[in-house]
Amino acid sequence: MRTGKLSTWLLRGTYPRLYVPIVLIILLVSAVRYHYLVATEIQEVRRQGAIELRRAGDALLPGLAELPPVDLDAAATLLNDGLARLGPWIGTLKWQVPGQPEVEATAPAVPSGAPAWFAQWVQIDPPVQQFGQAVVGGQTGRLSVALQAAPLINHVWDTVVVQLRISALNIFTILFLLTLLLRANARMLRRLAEATNAFRHGRLDTRMEVAGTLESRAMAETFNDMAGKVQSLVLSLRETQHLQSEQLHFTRQLIDALPLPVFVRDANGTYLEVNRAWRRLFHVPGNAKNGHTSAPAYPEELSPERSAQIAQALDNEIRIRPANHQPARDMAYYEAPFTTTRGTVAGTIGTLVDVTERKRAEEALRAEKERAEVTLASIGDGVITTDLVGRIDSINEAAQLMTGFTADQAVGRQLDDVFRLYEDLASRNASSAAERDTVPGTLQQVTHEVLMHRSGERYAIEYTASAIRKGDGTAVGCVLVFRDVTETRDLRNQISWHARHDALTGLYNRAALAERLTHAIFVARQKGTLLAVCMLDLDHFQAVNDAHGNRVGDRLLKETARRLGAFITPQDAVARMGGDEFVLLLGEQTDVPTIAARVSVLMQQLAAPYAIDDRVLYTTVSVGVAVFPQDDANPDTLLRHADQAMCQAKSFGRNQMHVFDVQLDHAVQTQHTRQTRVAQALHAGELVLHYQPKINLRTGEILGLEALLRWQHPDQGLLGPQHVLPLIEDAELEVELGEWVLRQALTQMRQWTDAGMLWEVSVNIAAAHFHRPNFVDRLKDILHTCPEVSPTRLELEILESAALEDMQYMRHMMQSCQALGVRFALDDFGTGFSSLSYLKRLPAETIKIDQSFVRGILDDGDDLTLVSAIVALAAAFERHVVAEGVETAEQCAKLLELGCERGQGYGIARPMPAHEVLSWARDHAARHAAKAVQDAARRPGTPHGGMRP
Asked: Which of 378, 452, 684, 766 is deepest in the core (most CB within 10 A)?
């Protein structure tokens, strides 16, 4: 590279100017890199030092612990051997036993291989750590280990030196390649400057050699292409000039031959040319051009100052008075600018068009049209006139409103395009009217039709069509007169519709259902087919109303009605009986299995999620079916039997279908009797609570108990909750029983508190009870009855599936209860639609793994994976996790291996009466203590009194 001043070199181009910033960036990046490199290495040697300290402690402590405390020489020998074995990093070893002199061993100092400034900069202090170990005699000896700083600093310095050499090689390579790039760029610019200078001096055939780097070849090709195009333009310039001369001569002849008066003037307003018609109109002499006439060659209105305004105005007509005293003429003026080849405005071309006769005809036609429009506008009916081929000539304002077309849009279009009838073409009636021999003044027959508005709306109209005839009787068109009768028809239809339909859902009401059912029974008798009368009731609909309000409930009913309407066939019918009850008639069925299959499909469709506003609701239906003629009864009895079957379906747990049979009435009575018996058992004290402990699987600590319902039946003995809860589901008795369980559990907790046992107690809460609007207030009142019991020791368990029914409402209710101090647990977790989103939004403190998964963790890989995932989820969201159904020691061991330390089940303890809990707790503590002693005795190599690892 040529030598020169730095400033000259930097001004050569963009690439040279980037040289200095690149060097500065390299230096800055290198400084930052080595700053973090030194910091990282310091952390690494400190970590290695900590490892060396632990290694020294692990290597020396067992030997020192076995020595008698008074044998100082053996301790010193062991320390010196440790210095030799542990390497150069160890600096000092000290052993101290209480009551004995300190034994110390020091290694020779390792020389520093790093500069003093580097050692002072990194400032690595020698790491020191102490270890304690029980020795013979029960005392605790302390071993102090100190490392030397020099090996740590030398390790950092060696790493920095290696990286410096690598960085120097990289920087040299970058600068060398950048220098080569700059030299190639300079050669390319020099070749371009030489070629450009030659082309500037007239050597149009100058071309650059296509050679060198890729950029040089691309630049040479671009220059050569540009030079070729410029050379072609110069050669075609002479030919273009000749063609322009010929074109100018032709243009002058063309303008002069035009019949319209035309002038041409320059940008200053000076007339350059006028054609023969212009000279004839204004009597301009043949040599009066270029503005040299004594009198002006144009009217005063067309002066350069005013002509542009006239040409651009909507009314561009002016009155011209010819010079030979002929009558004035109305003429339209038009002008347009013309430009030079460079695009600048060179002047104006103007012309005049005689519109005198046209204006007279327009004025006469306008007067006639105004009279017709005034007449049509005064009529309240719609009026449309057409010609013989059906094109619209006029349309009044009333017709515009009913068709949706303005007069400008309608005039000239075909009648059928504007006056669109639903069932017929208006042009047919118009054509037939023009062909009929009608007598003026006679009454025309009215036709009733439906008119289609442009927007798609429909109007009921009545209209007449009559021919328009000239004086000689020849038909020249047709006139249509029509009026809107929609309101009258709609009112009649609305009254009829409301008499037979439900106002909310649009389905049939009871009156219409009675007619359809009577007809369906008649058809079934005639054809020998089956008729299914299905009574449908939405499950838990009242809970939706209580949780979300009546508006959401109405929306749910409408959506259910829409799905029912989409399900039925022409032989079926559906009606709303009121509330959340619907009746579905399935006609012309062949057998009962076919009916059951169709009802099953319907239940699946109705069980799909409902998206209402920003909520997703889930609901099911209970269906009762009465089949005619198997149940040969009148319509009212069939409906009553279907209703009884529906009640039976609900008693089976909802989301069920039940076909009516002769035993249905007895079954309904039995259900009511059973509910009454449960209420008697509650009031008579037959219902009791048993408690199942929850323990820490690792330590054996009793964490709490779960309160479980039992029925001490006087005849059948002790019964489980499955004999009580299904009978009272969604009944008022369910809430009464839930509050009784809460009070009983708190009373028992108070007794255990007096005995010194601060156990937590879990109580299961039914979904219907928890969704009660006054649940929080009632819970607060119940808690106040036992002020000695802290609310934090009460845990409410809710099913995961119930918690997911209305996430937002459940979250609000749980937070309100937690404000009182009560905690929550998600019961049977994993059996519902478990997800990270649900777990995050539900503020439950505890997750209970369903026992069906716990039973299979030893032999079912899927159950093991699921339990492991639930435990991981609980740990991630900082929730406690309890495994239900723990029955064996192997299951306990596997749960501990997975990270689950809490459990309950028959393998720990069966549910027991409250008076047996304290004695079981004492026995459990004794068993666990004895097991701990046995485990400690069986553990080999554990010194007496030593710490548990």
From this structure: 766
